[in-house]
Amino acid sequence: MTRGAEHKEKRALLGLEAAEISSLLPPSAPAYTARQIRAFCLDGREIAEMTSLPKSLRETLSHDLVALPLTTETVRISADGSKKYLFRFLGGDLAESVYIPHDYGASVCVSTQIGCKMGCAFCASGKEGFKRDLDPAEMLAEVVAVNRDAGGTAKKRAVSGVVLMGSGEPLDNYDNVREFVRLLTAEDGFGLSERSVTLSTSGLADGIRRLADDGSRMTLSVSLHATTDEARSAIMPVNRRYPISEVVSAARYYFEKTGRRVTFEYTLISGVNDSPADAERLTALLRGFPAHVNIIRLNAVEGSTLKATTLTAAARFAALLTKKGLPATVRRSLGSDIEGACGQLKRRYTGEDGE
């Protein structure tokens, strides 16, 4: 039997409103019980840990229900303090999340799909293909589980930010992601501010525009990674559907509708996109609206022949942008020693935990 299969037919309580939970309870349960259970789930507690409920009710609930739609398979801890979690969802699918500590708080990098369709050359997440979308409760469970492991509850959170930058393309799972954000930011739920949520996209221009029209307050982060369509299409097949001009136009639209500055992610790859001419073109592309370039040095991905630009060259590239009036910083890479950095999530056992 596949691990996790014993829960395959069970339903998760996390993500349900109090009224929905109430409908699953016996008629004898007090009216406040559903709210209690919902609060316990948002804290990450399993049904057996809800000890203020009668034992008989806990046993009844456990027969057909689980609190969270996932279990933690492994946790790998980096020397820099970040942690990579391998989660198993009901039915057995695997996905990873990363806890990222900062001086100003901590964030969770959340997966939105099992695998990915985008096929970017520098990213491990899509190497094994796409399997399915994650639903809102599954995404919320990633946050709740990491928050609990960090010592937090829903009311006293250890997590101050969420980044939709794990496995998958968030805008390819649009409706589920929007519902996840609603659950994450609900005042009677996890209660995180929408401004504390960053959505990273490979550049699905129509999805960016839809997000703006839907009244999003999230920070938008666009994976650009090249300054010509030829170079971008070679490393990001999505560019053949959404070329650079459309992506940048959609990002401008997002700023105009929301007033939120857009971040552009730019992974430096030696000999591909790191020349002074690239810096010139990037400045020209993003001129005229508030934008910030987040420069990332390429992280190693198994089977890839692409090489990272040196740290010195990355700093020089950032300085060129800044000199031309385009704000840019070189992102500090966290979790690379546990394959938890940008582009390294694989949804499988690795290292000493390996298969």
Automatic annotation (TrEMBL):
Note how many cofactor molecules are bound and how.
Binds 1 [4Fe-4S] cluster. The cluster is coordinated with 3 cysteines and an exchangeable S-adenosyl-L-methionine.
Please list the residues that make up the active site. E96, C342
Question: Major place of localization?
Answer: cytoplasm
Q: What is its EC number?
A: 2.1.1.192
Question: Where does the record place it?
Answer: Cytoplasm
Keyword annotations for this protein, in alphabetical order, are: 4Fe-4S, Cytoplasm, Disulfide bond, Iron, Iron-sulfur, Metal-binding, Methyltransferase, rRNA processing, S-adenosyl-L-methionine, Transferase, tRNA processing
> Could you state one GO cellular component term attached to this entry?
cytoplasm
Enzyme class per UniProt: transferase
**Similarity remark:** Belongs to the radical SAM superfamily. RlmN family.
The name of this protein is: Probable dual-specificity RNA methyltransferase RlmN
Which gene is this protein's source? rlmN
